[in-house]
Structures are given as C-alpha cells and as structure tokens.
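[agent] plan:
  1. take the single chain provided in the ticket
  2. run structure prediction with default settings
  3. attach structure tokens to the ticket
  4. add a short note for the reviewer (M.T.)
[agent] executing step 1
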Amino acid sequence: MLTASTGLVEAHKRQWYQGIADRLPNREVARAGRRGDTEAADSTIWELETPPLAQDPIIGKQRAHPRVRWLLCGVAEHGSGKLRVFERGDALVAVEWRRPWTNFPLLNGPLIDLGLSPAVGRHVVLDAAFDTVTRDRANGRGVLYSMHSWLEHVRTGAPLAPARHSWAPVDANAS
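[agent] step 2 finished; step 3 output follows
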C-alpha cells in the first residue's frame, strides 16, 4: 500500500492554504479573542481548513464568530474518488462521500474545495446538504460554484453563481 509521509501531507495542506489565502482580502481578522482567516465583504468570517478538524476549535470559532463559514480542502477526497459528484439537473448535483470527516456535521455553512474536477472540467467548490451521514457514507445533494465565483463573493459580496458545466465524459471526444 502506498502512503504519503506526514511531511508530504503537511506540505500539501500548507500549499493549499497559501494558494487560497494569497488571493483573499483582510487576512487574519480577530473577533472576540479568536482569529479568523478572512472577513468577506458581507462581514462573514471565512475559515480555511484542511481536515481532519477537531471538535473544540470548531465550536470555539463558531461561538466567537456568529457569521463564520468554512472552506475545506477536499481535493484529496475528490481526486481519490471518495467524494464524488453526479449530474442531477439544473444547477444541482448528487453527492456521494465514502468515510466523511467525523466533525463535518458540526460546521456552519461549509463549502468543500474539490480542486480541478475532471467531471466538471474546472476548479469548483461544493455546497452540499447531506440527507444521510454515517461513519462510512454520506449521501446528499449540492451546488457547485467556480473558485472564481467564491473569491469574487468574498472580495465584493457578489452572489455566488452556480458553475456551468457540460458533464460530458472526460474522454467523450476520443472516439
């Protein structure tokens, strides 16, 4: 079995965090003695996190910041097929997640950064609602937004616009 070293995993987490943080305004805001990663134009505090997440920091930050939301790095989960999205119609997707993060249900308004999604063909973030969540599986529905749309939302307060996608199989043009 191939496993990544702790050093490589931590380097990936830092790289993801820095890649997003470098494009954000108002980095490192503080409210009620708690730090937040950025404050959006609509006064929402956004936390950028690379799971797994411990319960105590989640609860503490959500108490300190009544308008906190979370952007979580789900690039590895999506890339490995553990977190999959399927076309459902309109702007909706069906979501299937094998072995979801334990404390995910505790989070206020989380979005999951899927990275460059082969199914969609662009860098997207997922806003998902799960109908069932167990230790082994979560199933639900959601909306995909482009990373560009999320960054504009944070910077200017512009509404998030669902990502437009074709859902053509990756190798559809090969024949």
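[agent] step 4 note for reviewer: Strands lie at 27-31, 34-39, 45-49, 68-73, 83-89, 92-98, 110-117, 122-133, 137-146.
[agent] ticket updated
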